[in-house]
Write a structure and sequence with these properties.
Blueprint (H helix, E strand, L loop, with lengths): L2 E7 L13 E2 L2 E2 H10 L6 E6 L2 H9 L4 E3 L7 H11 L5 E4 L9 H9 L8 E7 L3 H4 L6 E4 L4 E6 L14 H4 L3 E10 H7 L6 H6 L3 H6 L4 E5 L21
Parallel strand pairs: 1-4, 1-6, 4-5, 7-11
Antiparallel strand pairs: 2-3, 6-10, 7-10, 8-9, 8-10, 9-11
Helix pairs in contact: 3-7
């Protein structure tokens, strides 16, 4: 199975312009993500997908692969779809978040392993929630799973609601999962996803994966024990100062 790792990267971030090029302990963010992705044993090829010449030049300068994509894409998923329209030799595409400079390669391999099942269309990672702060954080999407370990809903709200149970007891009574935002797709499925119109649940929660579920696509999950550290805005840089 040929698997491509794609790192979408754009310069014009609203909360953190130029984020891919910021320095993280002596290397740019995008370089750190790229070098971590290269350590994943399941990837045959790694490429940065960007619409910005500054990022493209920088990636080429450190010896990385890069593809220039359109500047009209609304999501990393759309940018990944353009890459596979140009790179037709792959079976599966892994969408690697470009703002996790120390992503663990084992998470990439764990996700890729979901596609050993020929019926897997889309895959993502989940992690068990262990504390109340995270459980009730509306910026951290939660995932509901069925008995086949497929995601049946994502929400910024804390789901499921435990009726009649005090909130401080919820973690004792039920296992909750948060979403880890790395995706894998069979390439033909990825192309189909980008043709779907924005759905009502996606609008409500501002979570694009709900569009896929609403349209009948199945999302396989694998559980990771590794915590991810993402840089969403400048104040998050303090999270990675101690990581090398």
């Amino acid at each position: 199975m040929n698997i491509i790792g794609i790192i979408p990267a754009r310069y014009a971030s609203t909360r953190f312009p130029g984020k891919p090029l910021i320095d993280i302990n002596g290397k740019s963010m995008i370089r750190r993500v790229y070098e971590q992705a290269l350590k994943a044993s399941t990837l045959k090829y790694v490429v940065v997908a960007t619409d910005d010449d500054r990022i493209a030049v920088h990636v080429r300068d450190f010896g990385g692969n890069v593809i220039l994509t359109a500047n009209t894409h609304q999501s990393g998923t759309d940018r990944c779809a353009e890459v596979i329209s140009k790179e037709r030799s792959f079976d599966v595409a892994i969408n690697i978040q470009g703002d996790e400079p120390y992503i663990d390669p084992s998470q990439i391999d764990l996700l890729a392993g979901c596609f050993e099942d020929k019926d897997t269309q889309i895959a993502t990672l989940v992690k068990e929630i262990k504390d109340d702060e995270e459980l009730f954080n509306n910026n951290s999407p939660k995932v509901l799973l069925n008995t086949e370990r497929e995601a049946i809903y994502f929400s910024r709200a804390t789901l499921p609601f435990l009726r009649g149970i005090p909130t401080e007891k919820w973690l004792e009574r039920h296992k909750f999962y948060k979403h880890i935002g790395i995706y894998g797709y069979r390439c033909e499925i990825l192309e189909a996803l980008t043709a779907l119109p924005i759905s009502s649940l996606e609008k409500a929660e501002s979570l694009e994966q709900l569009r896929w579920i609403e349209n009948g696509y199945r999302i396989k999950t694998a559980e990771t024990l590794v915590e991810t550290v993402a840089i969403d805005e400048p104040r998050d840089l303090g999270k990675v100062k101690q990581l090398k």
